[in-house]
Amino acid sequence: MQISEIYNLQKTQAQLDFIDINPEVDIPLFIDPFFLSKRNDNWSIEATLTLRSFFQKVIDLIRAGNEEDAKAMFSHLHEPNSTCLGMSVGNPQGRGVGNEDTDKIYESLLRSRAIQTGLIQDIEDNILFVDNFGKDKLSDMATNIITRHLIKYTKDQCELHNIELTNNIASGFFWSRQENEWQAEYTEMLVIDGRKILLVPKGIVSYSKSYSPDRYYNHFILDFLQNENLRMRSALVQRRNNGANFVTKKSIKEINPQSKEFLRRFTLEHPQVLEQFKEETDIESLTNLEITDIDIRAVIRNLVGTLTELDPGADTASEYHNLMIGVLEIILYPHLINPVKEREIHNGRKRVDISFDNASKTGVFYRLQEFYQLPCPYIFVECKNYSRDIVNPELDQIAGRFSFQRGKVGIIICRQIDNLNLFIERCRDTYRDQRGLIIPLVDEDIVQLLNNHNNWNWSFAERFFSDRIREITIN
Questions:
Q1: Core-most of 185, 231, 263, 444, by most CB within 10 Å?
Q2: Based on the domain organization, do 156 and 39 belong to the same domain?
Q3: Which domain holds residue 260?
Q4: Is 391 helix (H, G, I), strand (E, B) or coil?
Q5: At 437, is the secondary structure helix, strand, or coil?
Q6: Half-sphere exposure of 304 toward its Cβ, with a 13 Å CA cutoff?
Q7: Does the structure show a pLDDT above 60 at 91?
Q8: Which range, 306-315, 349-358, 392-401, has the best average confidence (pLDDT)?
Q9: Quick one: 403 and 440 in the same domain?
Q10: What confidence tens digit (pLDDT) does each residue in 230-246 have?
Q11: Which of 79, 105, 83, 104 is nearest to 94 (CA)?
Q12: In sequence order, which residues have a C-beta less than 8 Å from that of residue 97 and are 6 or more positions away?
């Protein structure tokens, strides 16, 4: 059974921010440190800083000749069955970093001399240059290191969906960036049938196919060597019937077959190729259809029907709030991720219904920050299941929760607004007064966004939000 079934969430993967795992079966998805490092949402940035803190200490210890302490850094790496991600078939059992593997990994790392020579600078580089080290081991290492971030994420998602946590559970070891050491604690955790479970954001996982030795070798190193052989007019150069010179990748492979040893040797001689590989490699968040088989149109029909039949008013406010969490997840993913319920603002004096991390690398929510110069690391959302119009106090309420550090962009969702033009004018006044940008949405907008949702293309939502924001920001 999936998490959604165990806790009767009545939500599909498309309506959930986390991977809807079955605790009895691993999913072949991975936490990819390179992907995390390319992301710009706050959760990924914090996790990346923790990963870099850990690996920088390993590098510093090895370069200082303190190999015993460096080796001890690997002592808390183990098979993290709590996420149910990885390569196992059947019950989660891990094929990544096991206790018996940590010594081998460290010895391979040391033998490769990749750290001493400066070849390895980031933890993800291990996958390119260290023998017997693949995406499963890298994902396991990353999971262990960022366990504390995953615990916090799990708590937030459980609070969002009213899933009960168990008190006073041993967290297991995690890397503390602040203390620069492994730590453990007793905390609230999700426990299912006696097993600790860590939920993982669906927006940060991948199949780990992009930052791989195969792609580096076949699409960057071989391309470089083809051009070099042509430039030097080596014996590998052949001539086409039309007189054009060419060099086949097959001929280069015969001389320099792919191996970690060759990748190390080549990269030491041509570090600019690795830099190009890192710069030109980008990874997008997986769509819901890439994670699981789902009939998204059926899900949307059900949501539209539920919204249409739901009465406004205080009695159904919680139901409306819960419905909107799933609706927004479908509409806004992967641009906005990590919804958190009732985040405290300004020393706990004010709260918002939901806040999202802004993970946009393109599109309207990216432009708000880059071109409109509106800080929006978080996007705040208020859900009002009113049977009356929203008026100025509600606008002032959400505007009062903005700050430069957390963001000055919010969405206010309500059932209907009799005079939308007048309300947009009020939002325009708020924006002109530099108190922030508030984007109103009503039932009709939500239905339109859902009915035009395309799992592979965000173009309709992009146009919709761009037009609505333009109405507010341009006189």
A1: 263
A2: yes
A3: 213-280
A4: coil
A5: strand
A6: 17
A7: no
A8: 306-315
A9: yes
A10: 999 999 999 999 989 99
A11: 79
A12: 77, 78, 79, 105, 137, 140, 141, 144
